What does this fold into?
Amino acid sequence: MDDDCSTSEVFAELKNRSLSVSDVAQMAAGSGLAVYAMWVGILQPGFRRVPLKLQVPYMPASKSQVRNVMTLLKGRKGGIVDLGSGDGRIVLKAHHHGFTPAVGYELNPWLIYLSRFNAWRTGHHRKVSYRREDLWKVDLSECKNVTVFLAPSVLSLLQKKLLAELPDDALVIAGRFPFPDWTACREEGLGVDRAWAYNIQVQRNITIAKDNNSFIKQEELV
It folds into this structure.
C-alpha cells in the first residue's frame, strides 16, 4: 500500500510540471524507460517474429512533422488511426483537433506504455486508445483518416493493404517518407519534416488505370 501511494504521488507531481533533461534521465535510470532502452538496443522481443525489412526503428515525430500532418488533415472529421503510433503524439494531437475515436496501433509494448503515460499526464487517457497490435492484422475497412510514419520498405507493402481495405473517401497521411508508388494530392513542409496526403479514391483510380494500360500492352505483344 505504501508503495502504491508513493507511486501515485510521483505521477501526480510529474503531471503538474514540465520535465527537464535531468528529470527524464532520472526517470530512465529508475523506471521502465531504462528497460526500454535495453530492449531497443538488445532484445527487441516485439519484433522477433517480424521480418527485418518490416522493422521500423523508433524515431519520434518532430513538432514540425506533427504540425504538417495536422495541416493536411484540416477540414477532415471523424475517427483517425495511426499505424505504428510510437510514443502516441500524433494520436494525442489528432484528439486535440477533434478527431474521435483516435487510435494508435503499435507493436512495441514499451512505446504503448509510454503513450498511455503521456495521455494520462495530459488528462486524455480516457479519450484516446493505444493498442498493441500488428498493423498488418488491423481491419481498416471503416477508417476514414490514417496516418503513418514508417520506413519506405514498409510503405511499399502497406500500399496494397490500404488500397484493398480503406473506403473511397479515406485520406492517408504519410510523414517523413512518401509512399513510393503513389501520387500525393497535397504536400506540406520541407525536407525530413514533409508530409504527404493521399486520396484513396483518386489513388485507386490511378492504380486501376495503370493496371489496364499494362494489360493492354501485354495483349498487344501477344
